[in-house]
Design a protein that fits this description.
Elements lengths: L2 H8 L5 E2 L5 H11 L3 E5 L5 E6 H11 L8 H4 L13 H11 L3 E6 L2 E7 H25 L1
Parallel strand pairs: 1-2
Antiparallel strand pairs: 2-3, 4-5
């Protein structure tokens, strides 16, 4: 199963913000959309960074309420690991596990086209295993 097939079923919608967005606005947006990360993009939809709930919690632990005075450009993760439509779910799962993050932007021609979460990966993997089990049951029933 590929990232392309996951995006085909879940959609390409990504909540993103610009680097000059305030951290307060980003927190409000995360809560409003019930999501765990925001991709930070330039006006041309090129990926400049990402910020997650974990990043925000760590920043608040370090700086207290003054953390909300920052713009995303000051606090986002800049070296964003991205995947492409051709990546398999297993490849994405390995990257997420190795680097310990739960959201991975999907990029095509240097532009943001989607996002894959660990929940998407787990769901796709379960569907894959269930399909394999069904195929085995059918094979055994026909033998």
């Amino acid at each position: 199963m590929t990232v392309k097939s996951v995006l085909a079923s879940k959609g390409h919608m990504v909540v993103s913000m610009t680097p000059n967005t305030s951290l307060k606005e980003a927190v409000d947006t995360l809560a409003k959309h019930k999501i765990g990360a925001l991709v930070v993009c330039a006006d041309d939809h090129s990926i400049e960074g990402i910020i997650s709930e974990r990043d925000i919690v760590r920043l608040i632990a370090e700086e207290g309420s003054s953390a909300f005075d920052h713009n995303l450009s000051q606090v986002m993760t800049r070296n964003v690991r991205v995947c492409h439509e051709e990546h398999t779910i297993n490849e994405v799962m390995q990257i997420m596990t190795k680097h310990r993050f739960r959201h991975m932007p999907v990029e095509k021609d240097k532009k943001l086209i989607g996002i894959i979460s660990i929940g998407d990966v787990v769901k796709a993997r379960i569907e894959q295993v269930e399909k394999e089990a069904d195929n085995i049951r059918q094979y055994i029933a026909m033998a």
